[in-house]
Amino acid sequence: MSLALYVHVPFCASRCPYCDFATAPATSRLRSRYLAALAREVREQGEAMGRPAVGTLYVGGGTPSLLEPDEVGALGAALAGAFDVRLEEATVEANPATLDRARLEAWVALGVTRLSLGAQSLSPRGLRALGRTHQPGDVAPAVAAARSAGLAVSLDLIFGWPGQTAGLWHADLDAALALRPDHLSCYPLELVLEPEEATASWPGAGWSAVERWRRAAAASQPDEDAVAQMYAAAEAALGAAGYRHYEIANWARRGSECRHNLTYWRNGEWLGVGAGAHSHLSGVRSRRPAALPAYLAAVERGAPRLADAASDDAVDGAILALRLDEGLDLVAYAHRFGERHARRVDAALRSVEPYGLVLRDDGRVRLTARGRLLANEVFVRLIPDAAADADAAPGPSVLAVS
Length: 402
Description:
The chain is of the alpha/beta class. Helices cover 42% and strands 21% of the residues. The protein has a nine-stranded mixed sheet, with helices on both faces. Strands 12-13-14 form a three-stranded antiparallel sheet, with no helix packed on it.
């Protein structure tokens, strides 16, 4: 069975103030040192795992499309030297304003088959509200360039940004659908108001400036009910356009679902390399430090990956399965995690059935449309330590689509 491989490229031209991913400024010195460390990690992981076959690849960030063609080629050579690369699908994330023909050709030569474009909004107002640097007019040419290179296209959209109305969200959906993407991801804007490890990668940026932006943005976001209505509007519009709602935040034309991400949601095995990258191997979750200085130091001194002590594979397996439209197969779950865990999960799901949040069908449990809106109310009941505090009836709309 082949492995799913995630490669993190943290570089961005600027840091979006809402972002909590591991990112860093794209200076030549940092890039050179990081790419050398990444190649070393790739080589060491490939050797330790006995040169496993890799079936899907996802290069995320950051903005991987900032890499120069020779840097993309060096990454491809490192991967080919460490793994038995047999790609069925390979995705690279891109900012719509950073694509050119030479870069696209380099990614295609590496084996990329999908381009995930961080459009986020297709209106000037939305991009300003989100602190994005590209323009709405950059998206259509990027889609056309990707298609001319033979790539499938996925678009990312964010809803619930400061000042957004239902009308503005409908306009974003209409503009996105007009581009006929193969895949769409729609995420609510979530603002973390505590310092994050990855912020340390931006010397001089300062957490205080980011925190001030986030607090101001949170004060002018649409309320929870309005955000829930936007999510329902996306379900209706994308469903009417023929897209399958295969995961809480993801829609695809039939056959265009992201195979790599399905490995995550089906609680499969993957290796993540690069700053902040997570892995799930033999039922154990681990990660690399998110801050670039800490990541570089760890790889350069040969430090082991950090254990993800907060994870519980049995809990994660249930929650991840419920994110998918195929739902949770309780028999398969019991076989994998044991009858005790299966009985606990089954009892937790039965506790929300009276509220119309889940339905049972041929041995599977799935979220209903209402359940997707209140997914956090379902998921919290699957966490043993939190379940005791979640006995009340489900409360107001709480989206769990990130």
